[in-house]
Design brief:
binds NADP nicotinamide-adenine-dinucleotide phosphate, Rossmann fold, seven-stranded parallel beta sheet
Length: about 260
């Protein structure tokens, strides 16, 4: 199926995967609604899309603020029309440390990565149910498949997204609403630019967006990519703890924190 002429709303559109998804969908003829906290980046992206003949509108919102994100999506609906595709992409990541145990950052990851998805869905679900059509997607991660030392909070927040979307998918099965969970491996974005290690099978954001849109068109239930990294993450579930401890040892000595603190 095609997204031409359809309204697609993307959270976290001000950089990285969300930015590339917005451009890819706009190039396919979707009317794109852009959401994030940074106004300047959103305005710039909307301008670029409009300049190349597309249709874009943006609204500034923090996905962890329930009234804000609901109002932002309603505002985009008024300007663009009812949402056909929602991509809950906004996400943050930071290492989980034990000395000190960084509970503040752990809370932030759960608020953005899990509750941010829930609040974004809340804004579109009633109308989709009424219309008996629509597509809900969340950008999770291959990290969802294994609790990793030094990444306990990020990996568990993404596991929560996977399981939440799975339940929703089955519940919405007979309601005409498709649900897709996207689990990327490493993608070159501001989130990963702090990583000093060599990221295997690293994809550009444009390539990731191209693959994600293809999977959405096919209404995939879960899309894990690239396949090599997906296989490794799934095999890791059977790896003994001592092996993972050894593999992640160097990482945990000097974990890569985001440039802007969460
Ligand atoms: N890069 C990877 O290798 C990779 C791999 C697997 C999964 N992912 C997932 O892909 C998604 C996009 O990540 P990315 O790599 O593209 O990172 P990114 O470039 O850092 O983009 C993150 C986006 O989320 C937005 N965001 C963060 N907190 C927000 C909040 N409270 N409210 C609204 N928007 C917020 C940011 O916008 P503002 O700062 O302007 O609000 C930004 O647009 C995330 O869910 C991430 O977990 C990434």
């Amino acid at each position: 199926m095609s997204f031409a002429g359809q309204v697609a709303v993307i959270t976290g559109a001000s950089s990285g995967i969300g930015w590339a998804l917005a451009r890819t969908l706009a190039a396919e003829g979707s009317k794109v609604g852009l959401i994030a906290r940074r106004r300047e980046q959103l305005a710039d992206l909307a301008g670029q899309i409009e300049k190349s003949g597309g249709t874009a509108a943006f609204a500034v919102a923090d996905v962890t603020e329930r009234p804000q994100i609901v109002a932002a999506i309603h505002d985009l609906t008024v300007r663009l029309g009812p949402v056909d595709l929602l991509i809950a992409n906004a996400g943050v990541g930071a290492p989980t440390t034990i000395e000190p145990f960084n509970v503040g950052e752990i809370e932030k990851m759960f608020r953005v990565n899990v509750l941010g998805v829930v609040y974004s869905l809340e804004a579109v679900l009633p109308q989709m149910l009424q219309r008996r059509r629509g597509h809900l997607a969340a950008i999770s991660s291959l990290a969802a498949y294994k609790g990793l030392p030094g990444e306990s909070a990020y990996t568990s927040s993404k596991a929560a997204v996977n399981v939440f979307m799975e339940g929703l998918r089955i519940q919405l099965r007979s309601k005409g609403i498709a649900v897709t969970t996207i689990c990327p491996g490493f993608v070159q974005t501001p989130m990963t630019e702090v990583n000093e290690f060599k990221m295997p099978w690293l994809l550009t954001a444009d390539e990731a967006a191209r693959r994600i849109v293809r999977a959405l068109k096919r209404r995939r239930k879960v899309y894990n990519f690239p396949w090599q990294m997906a296989l490794i993450m799934k095999l890791m579930r059977w790896a003994p703890d001592w092996l993972l401890e050894r593999v992640m040892h160097t990482y945990n000595e000097n974990p890569p924190f985001p440039k802007t603190p969460l």
